Amino acid sequence: MGSCEETAGWRTVLPLLLLVHGVAAEQWPVPYKRFDHRPKTDPYCQAQYTFCPTGNADGSIPLMKNEDVIDVFRLQAPVWEFKYGDLLGHFKIMHDAIGFRSTLTGRNYTAEWYELFQLGNCTFPHLRTGISEPFWCNQGAACFYEGIDDQHWRSNGTLVLVATISGSIFNQLAQWIRDDNNTGIYYETWTVQASSDPNSSVWFDSYDCSKFVLRTYEKLLELGATFKRNIQTNYTRLFLFSGEPVYLGNASSIFGPQGNKSLASDIQKLYFPYRPHQSFKELVMSILDIYGKVVLDKTFYLYYNLEYWYLPMKPPYIKIIYEEVPLPSR
Protein backbone atom coordinates (compact mmCIF):
# COMPACT_ATOMS: atom_id res chain seq x y z
CA MET A 1 0.00 0.00 0.00
CA GLY A 2 1.47 3.39 -0.95
CA SER A 3 2.63 5.75 1.81
CA CYS A 4 1.28 9.28 2.21
CA GLU A 5 4.61 10.61 0.90
CA GLU A 6 4.33 8.45 -2.25
CA THR A 7 0.76 9.64 -2.88
CA ALA A 8 1.71 13.26 -2.34
CA GLY A 9 4.64 12.87 -4.73
CA TRP A 10 2.36 11.52 -7.44
CA ARG A 11 -0.02 14.43 -7.00
CA THR A 12 2.92 16.81 -7.42
CA VAL A 13 3.95 15.14 -10.68
CA LEU A 14 0.40 14.99 -12.08
CA PRO A 15 0.10 18.71 -13.04
CA LEU A 16 3.34 18.41 -15.04
CA LEU A 17 1.95 15.41 -16.91
CA LEU A 18 -1.18 17.38 -17.65
CA LEU A 19 0.91 20.12 -19.26
CA VAL A 20 2.98 17.67 -21.29
CA HIS A 21 0.23 15.33 -22.49
CA GLY A 22 -2.88 17.50 -22.40
CA VAL A 23 -5.80 17.39 -19.98
CA ALA A 24 -8.09 15.18 -22.02
CA ALA A 25 -8.33 13.01 -25.05
CA GLU A 26 -9.59 14.56 -28.26
CA GLN A 27 -12.59 12.27 -28.09
CA TRP A 28 -14.45 10.46 -25.31
CA PRO A 29 -14.78 7.58 -25.25
CA VAL A 30 -11.33 7.00 -26.67
CA PRO A 31 -11.88 5.10 -29.96
CA TYR A 32 -10.77 1.48 -29.93
CA LYS A 33 -7.71 1.24 -32.17
CA ARG A 34 -7.96 -0.96 -35.28
CA PHE A 35 -4.95 -2.70 -36.84
CA ASP A 36 -4.13 -3.81 -40.37
CA HIS A 37 -3.23 -7.36 -39.31
CA ARG A 38 -3.20 -9.69 -36.33
CA PRO A 39 0.26 -10.17 -34.79
CA LYS A 40 1.64 -13.60 -33.97
CA THR A 41 1.26 -14.63 -30.36
CA ASP A 42 4.35 -14.67 -28.18
CA PRO A 43 5.38 -18.17 -26.97
CA TYR A 44 5.50 -16.73 -23.44
CA CYS A 45 1.70 -16.49 -23.51
CA GLN A 46 0.11 -19.82 -22.70
CA ALA A 47 -3.62 -20.54 -22.40
CA GLN A 48 -4.97 -22.89 -19.76
CA TYR A 49 -7.67 -23.89 -22.22
CA THR A 50 -7.07 -24.14 -25.97
CA PHE A 51 -8.67 -21.33 -27.92
CA CYS A 52 -11.43 -22.43 -30.35
CA PRO A 53 -10.43 -26.13 -30.31
CA THR A 54 -13.06 -27.27 -32.86
CA GLY A 55 -13.00 -24.25 -35.19
CA ASN A 56 -11.16 -24.05 -38.50
CA ALA A 57 -7.52 -23.14 -37.95
CA ASP A 58 -7.62 -20.43 -40.62
CA GLY A 59 -10.80 -18.87 -39.20
CA SER A 60 -12.80 -19.65 -42.34
CA ILE A 61 -16.59 -19.77 -42.32
CA PRO A 62 -18.51 -22.02 -44.74
CA LEU A 63 -20.59 -20.37 -47.44
CA MET A 64 -24.33 -20.93 -47.59
CA LYS A 65 -26.51 -21.10 -50.68
CA ASN A 66 -28.04 -17.71 -51.39
CA GLU A 67 -31.57 -19.13 -51.25
CA ASP A 68 -30.99 -20.80 -47.86
CA VAL A 69 -32.95 -19.55 -44.85
CA ILE A 70 -30.77 -19.13 -41.76
CA ASP A 71 -32.14 -18.92 -38.22
CA VAL A 72 -30.16 -16.63 -35.90
CA PHE A 73 -30.07 -17.43 -32.18
CA ARG A 74 -29.08 -15.40 -29.16
CA LEU A 75 -26.82 -17.54 -26.94
CA GLN A 76 -25.88 -16.71 -23.37
CA ALA A 77 -24.53 -18.77 -20.46
CA PRO A 78 -22.61 -18.14 -17.22
CA VAL A 79 -18.87 -17.65 -17.70
CA TRP A 80 -16.98 -20.93 -17.16
CA GLU A 81 -20.31 -22.78 -17.03
CA PHE A 82 -18.50 -25.93 -18.17
CA LYS A 83 -16.50 -25.88 -14.90
CA TYR A 84 -18.66 -24.12 -12.31
CA GLY A 85 -22.20 -24.64 -13.59
CA ASP A 86 -24.46 -21.67 -12.91
CA LEU A 87 -22.29 -20.24 -10.08
CA LEU A 88 -21.17 -17.09 -11.94
CA GLY A 89 -24.66 -16.75 -13.36
CA HIS A 90 -25.87 -15.80 -9.86
CA PHE A 91 -23.58 -12.77 -10.12
CA LYS A 92 -24.78 -12.04 -13.68
CA ILE A 93 -21.31 -12.74 -15.11
CA MET A 94 -22.38 -14.05 -18.51
CA HIS A 95 -20.78 -15.03 -21.80
CA ASP A 96 -22.51 -14.19 -25.09
CA ALA A 97 -22.45 -15.79 -28.52
CA ILE A 98 -24.56 -16.16 -31.68
CA GLY A 99 -25.97 -19.35 -33.19
CA PHE A 100 -26.95 -20.06 -36.80
CA ARG A 101 -29.01 -22.88 -38.29
CA SER A 102 -29.33 -23.67 -41.99
CA THR A 103 -32.82 -24.85 -42.91
CA LEU A 104 -31.51 -26.41 -46.15
CA THR A 105 -28.88 -28.61 -44.52
CA GLY A 106 -30.07 -28.69 -40.91
CA ARG A 107 -26.54 -27.86 -39.75
CA ASN A 108 -25.93 -25.58 -36.76
CA TYR A 109 -23.04 -23.19 -36.17
CA THR A 110 -21.78 -21.04 -33.29
CA ALA A 111 -19.89 -17.74 -33.49
CA GLU A 112 -18.31 -16.17 -30.44
CA TRP A 113 -15.48 -13.79 -29.55
CA TYR A 114 -13.31 -14.28 -26.49
CA GLU A 115 -9.82 -14.14 -25.01
CA LEU A 116 -6.98 -16.22 -26.46
CA PHE A 117 -5.28 -16.53 -23.06
CA GLN A 118 -8.21 -16.30 -20.61
CA LEU A 119 -9.58 -13.21 -18.90
CA GLY A 120 -6.87 -12.63 -16.30
CA ASN A 121 -4.12 -12.37 -18.91
CA CYS A 122 -6.18 -9.93 -20.97
CA THR A 123 -6.93 -7.72 -17.96
CA PHE A 124 -3.57 -7.60 -16.17
CA PRO A 125 0.04 -7.92 -17.34
CA HIS A 126 2.90 -10.18 -16.29
CA LEU A 127 5.76 -8.57 -14.37
CA ARG A 128 8.95 -10.38 -15.37
CA THR A 129 12.11 -10.42 -13.27
CA GLY A 130 14.69 -7.93 -14.47
CA ILE A 131 12.35 -6.33 -17.03
CA SER A 132 10.79 -2.97 -16.24
CA GLU A 133 8.02 -2.99 -18.85
CA PRO A 134 4.89 -5.03 -18.02
CA PHE A 135 4.26 -7.81 -20.52
CA TRP A 136 0.73 -8.23 -21.86
CA CYS A 137 -0.74 -11.50 -23.15
CA ASN A 138 -3.79 -9.74 -24.50
CA GLN A 139 -5.55 -10.87 -27.64
CA GLY A 140 -9.17 -11.67 -28.33
CA ALA A 141 -10.53 -13.29 -31.47
CA ALA A 142 -13.62 -14.71 -33.14
CA CYS A 143 -14.25 -18.44 -33.00
CA PHE A 144 -16.61 -20.04 -35.53
CA TYR A 145 -17.37 -23.76 -35.35
CA GLU A 146 -20.03 -26.25 -36.37
CA GLY A 147 -22.69 -27.17 -33.85
CA ILE A 148 -24.66 -25.51 -31.06
CA ASP A 149 -24.27 -27.08 -27.63
CA ASP A 150 -27.94 -26.89 -26.66
CA GLN A 151 -27.37 -28.18 -23.15
CA HIS A 152 -24.64 -25.63 -22.45
CA TRP A 153 -26.75 -22.65 -23.50
CA ARG A 154 -30.17 -23.83 -22.32
CA SER A 155 -29.34 -25.34 -18.91
CA ASN A 156 -28.30 -22.13 -17.14
CA GLY A 157 -28.64 -19.51 -19.84
CA THR A 158 -30.41 -18.57 -23.05
CA LEU A 159 -30.96 -20.04 -26.49
CA VAL A 160 -33.64 -18.07 -28.32
CA LEU A 161 -34.43 -17.28 -31.97
CA VAL A 162 -33.95 -13.55 -32.65
CA ALA A 163 -33.97 -13.28 -36.46
CA THR A 164 -34.15 -15.14 -39.77
CA ILE A 165 -31.87 -14.21 -42.67
CA SER A 166 -31.05 -15.40 -46.17
CA GLY A 167 -27.97 -17.36 -47.11
CA SER A 168 -26.82 -14.33 -49.08
CA ILE A 169 -26.90 -12.13 -45.97
CA PHE A 170 -25.08 -14.81 -44.00
CA ASN A 171 -22.26 -14.93 -46.58
CA GLN A 172 -21.85 -11.17 -46.40
CA LEU A 173 -21.81 -11.37 -42.61
CA ALA A 174 -19.16 -14.11 -42.74
CA GLN A 175 -16.80 -11.83 -44.68
CA TRP A 176 -17.48 -9.00 -42.23
CA ILE A 177 -16.69 -11.27 -39.25
CA ARG A 178 -13.30 -12.13 -40.79
CA ASP A 179 -12.51 -8.47 -41.49
CA ASP A 180 -13.65 -7.41 -38.01
CA ASN A 181 -11.60 -10.19 -36.45
CA ASN A 182 -8.41 -9.30 -38.32
CA THR A 183 -8.52 -5.62 -37.37
CA GLY A 184 -9.91 -5.74 -33.81
CA ILE A 185 -7.31 -7.82 -32.03
CA TYR A 186 -7.19 -6.78 -28.37
CA TYR A 187 -9.61 -7.66 -25.59
CA GLU A 188 -10.69 -4.88 -23.24
CA THR A 189 -12.37 -5.90 -19.98
CA TRP A 190 -13.35 -2.56 -18.54
CA THR A 191 -15.88 0.11 -19.33
CA VAL A 192 -14.60 3.26 -17.65
CA GLN A 193 -17.25 5.82 -16.81
CA ALA A 194 -17.55 9.02 -14.76
CA SER A 195 -20.31 7.67 -12.51
CA SER A 196 -22.99 5.00 -12.25
CA ASP A 197 -25.46 7.40 -13.83
CA PRO A 198 -26.34 5.90 -17.26
CA ASN A 199 -25.97 9.35 -18.85
CA SER A 200 -22.53 10.07 -17.41
CA SER A 201 -19.42 10.43 -19.55
CA VAL A 202 -17.87 7.23 -20.87
CA TRP A 203 -14.08 7.47 -20.99
CA PHE A 204 -13.28 3.99 -22.39
CA ASP A 205 -15.58 1.29 -23.73
CA SER A 206 -15.10 -2.43 -23.33
CA TYR A 207 -14.29 -4.76 -26.22
CA ASP A 208 -15.41 -8.24 -25.27
CA CYS A 209 -17.79 -11.08 -26.17
CA SER A 210 -20.92 -9.00 -25.66
CA LYS A 211 -19.62 -6.19 -27.86
CA PHE A 212 -18.95 -8.72 -30.62
CA VAL A 213 -22.57 -9.85 -30.43
CA LEU A 214 -23.83 -6.27 -30.49
CA ARG A 215 -21.59 -5.38 -33.46
CA THR A 216 -22.83 -8.46 -35.30
CA TYR A 217 -26.47 -7.60 -34.66
CA GLU A 218 -25.90 -4.09 -36.00
CA LYS A 219 -24.19 -5.47 -39.11
CA LEU A 220 -27.07 -7.89 -39.69
CA LEU A 221 -29.51 -4.97 -39.43
CA GLU A 222 -27.41 -3.04 -41.96
CA LEU A 223 -27.50 -6.03 -44.32
CA GLY A 224 -31.29 -6.19 -44.15
CA ALA A 225 -32.14 -8.48 -41.22
CA THR A 226 -35.25 -7.84 -39.15
CA PHE A 227 -35.07 -8.79 -35.48
CA LYS A 228 -37.94 -10.11 -33.41
CA ARG A 229 -39.44 -7.75 -30.92
CA ASN A 230 -40.32 -8.19 -27.24
CA ILE A 231 -37.18 -10.24 -26.50
CA GLN A 232 -35.26 -8.77 -23.58
CA THR A 233 -31.48 -8.84 -24.06
CA ASN A 234 -29.06 -8.07 -21.22
CA TYR A 235 -25.26 -8.11 -21.23
CA THR A 236 -22.62 -8.21 -18.50
CA ARG A 237 -20.34 -5.20 -18.25
CA LEU A 238 -17.53 -4.54 -15.78
CA PHE A 239 -17.30 -0.85 -14.86
CA LEU A 240 -14.56 1.25 -13.37
CA PHE A 241 -15.57 4.71 -12.17
CA SER A 242 -13.15 7.61 -12.35
CA GLY A 243 -12.74 11.30 -12.95
CA GLU A 244 -11.43 12.43 -16.31
CA PRO A 245 -8.46 10.18 -17.26
CA VAL A 246 -4.97 11.52 -17.89
CA TYR A 247 -2.83 10.22 -20.74
CA LEU A 248 0.56 9.02 -19.54
CA GLY A 249 2.29 7.64 -22.64
CA ASN A 250 3.23 4.38 -24.29
CA ALA A 251 5.57 1.68 -23.04
CA SER A 252 8.65 3.27 -24.62
CA SER A 253 8.06 6.73 -23.18
CA ILE A 254 7.42 5.35 -19.68
CA PHE A 255 9.65 2.28 -19.43
CA GLY A 256 12.31 3.04 -22.06
CA PRO A 257 15.85 4.32 -21.42
CA GLN A 258 14.63 7.91 -21.32
CA GLY A 259 11.38 6.99 -19.56
CA ASN A 260 9.81 8.12 -16.31
CA LYS A 261 11.32 5.78 -13.69
CA SER A 262 9.06 7.01 -10.90
CA LEU A 263 5.90 6.48 -12.94
CA ALA A 264 7.18 3.14 -14.21
CA SER A 265 7.69 2.00 -10.62
CA ASP A 266 4.19 3.15 -9.63
CA ILE A 267 2.62 1.20 -12.50
CA GLN A 268 4.56 -1.92 -11.56
CA LYS A 269 3.49 -1.60 -7.92
CA LEU A 270 -0.16 -1.23 -8.89
CA TYR A 271 -0.14 -4.35 -11.09
CA PHE A 272 1.93 -6.51 -8.70
CA PRO A 273 -1.04 -7.62 -6.50
CA TYR A 274 -2.83 -9.02 -9.58
CA ARG A 275 -0.10 -11.59 -10.32
CA PRO A 276 -1.21 -15.22 -10.84
CA HIS A 277 -0.47 -18.30 -8.71
CA GLN A 278 -0.50 -16.66 -5.27
CA SER A 279 -0.67 -18.49 -1.95
CA PHE A 280 -3.65 -17.79 0.32
CA LYS A 281 -1.55 -15.49 2.50
CA GLU A 282 -0.25 -13.62 -0.54
CA LEU A 283 -3.78 -13.29 -1.91
CA VAL A 284 -5.04 -11.72 1.35
CA MET A 285 -2.17 -9.22 1.30
CA SER A 286 -2.82 -8.48 -2.38
CA ILE A 287 -6.50 -7.75 -1.74
CA LEU A 288 -5.50 -5.28 0.99
CA ASP A 289 -2.96 -3.73 -1.37
CA ILE A 290 -5.55 -3.38 -4.15
CA TYR A 291 -7.99 -1.77 -1.70
CA GLY A 292 -5.30 0.68 -0.65
CA LYS A 293 -4.38 1.68 -4.21
CA VAL A 294 -7.87 1.89 -5.70
CA VAL A 295 -10.03 3.05 -2.77
CA LEU A 296 -7.67 4.90 -0.45
CA ASP A 297 -5.20 6.32 -2.99
CA LYS A 298 -7.94 6.46 -5.66
CA THR A 299 -5.48 5.33 -8.34
CA PHE A 300 -5.64 2.90 -11.23
CA TYR A 301 -3.59 2.63 -14.41
CA LEU A 302 -5.44 1.51 -17.53
CA TYR A 303 -3.67 0.02 -20.54
CA TYR A 304 -5.69 0.85 -23.65
CA ASN A 305 -4.65 0.92 -27.31
CA LEU A 306 -1.09 0.01 -26.21
CA GLU A 307 -0.93 3.18 -24.08
CA TYR A 308 -1.23 3.94 -20.37
CA TRP A 309 -3.76 6.20 -18.69
CA TYR A 310 -4.11 7.40 -15.11
CA LEU A 311 -7.61 6.96 -13.68
CA PRO A 312 -8.49 9.13 -10.64
CA MET A 313 -10.86 6.58 -9.11
CA LYS A 314 -14.11 7.53 -7.40
CA PRO A 315 -17.00 5.69 -5.69
CA PRO A 316 -18.38 3.12 -6.30
CA TYR A 317 -14.96 2.32 -7.91
CA ILE A 318 -15.97 -0.97 -9.56
CA LYS A 319 -19.30 -2.54 -10.39
CA ILE A 320 -20.73 -5.41 -12.43
CA ILE A 321 -23.88 -4.33 -14.28
CA TYR A 322 -26.20 -6.66 -16.17
CA GLU A 323 -27.29 -4.03 -18.64
CA GLU A 324 -30.28 -4.24 -20.97
CA VAL A 325 -29.52 -3.40 -24.60
CA PRO A 326 -32.53 -3.95 -26.90
CA LEU A 327 -32.21 -5.79 -30.18
CA PRO A 328 -31.60 -3.32 -33.03
CA SER A 329 -34.44 -2.05 -35.14
CA ARG A 330 -35.00 0.39 -37.94
TrEMBL record:
It comes from the Eukaryota. Keywords: Glycoprotein, Signal. Residues 1-25 form the signal peptide. The keyword Signal applies. It catalyses: 2 1-octadecanoyl-sn-glycero-3-phospho-(1'-sn-glycerol) = 1-octadecanoyl-sn-glycero-3-phospho-(3'-octadecanoyl-1'-sn-glycerol) + sn-glycero-3-phospho-(1'-sn-glycerol); 2 1-hexadecanoyl-sn-glycero-3-phospho-(1'-sn-glycerol) = 1-hexadecanoyl-sn-glycero-3-phospho-(3'-hexadecanoyl-1'-sn-glycerol) + sn-glycero-3-phospho-(1'-sn-glycerol); 2 1-tetradecanoyl-sn-glycero-3-phospho-(1'-sn-glycerol) = 1-tetradecanoyl-sn-glycero-3-phospho-(3'-tetradecanoyl-1'-sn-glycerol) + sn-glycero-3-phospho-(1'-sn-glycerol); S-hexadecanoyl-L-cysteinyl-[protein] + H2O = L-cysteinyl-[protein] + hexadecanoate + H(+). One of its GO terms (cellular component) is lysosomal membrane. GO terms for molecular function: hydrolase activity, acting on glycosyl bonds; palmitoyl-(protein) hydrolase activity. GO terms for biological process: lysosome organization. Catalyzes the synthesis of bis(monoacylglycero)phosphate (BMP) via transacylation of 2 molecules of lysophosphatidylglycerol (LPG). BMP also known as lysobisphosphatidic acid plays a key role in the formation of intraluminal vesicles and in maintaining intracellular cholesterol homeostasis. Can use only LPG as the exclusive lysophospholipid acyl donor for base exchange and displays BMP synthase activity towards various LPGs (LPG 14:0, LPG 16:0, LPG 18:0, LPG 18:1) with a higher preference for longer chain lengths. Exhibits palmitoyl protein thioesterase (S-depalmitoylation) activity in vitro and most likely plays a role in protein S-depalmitoylation. Belongs to the CLN5 family. This is Bis(monoacylglycero)phosphate synthase CLN5.
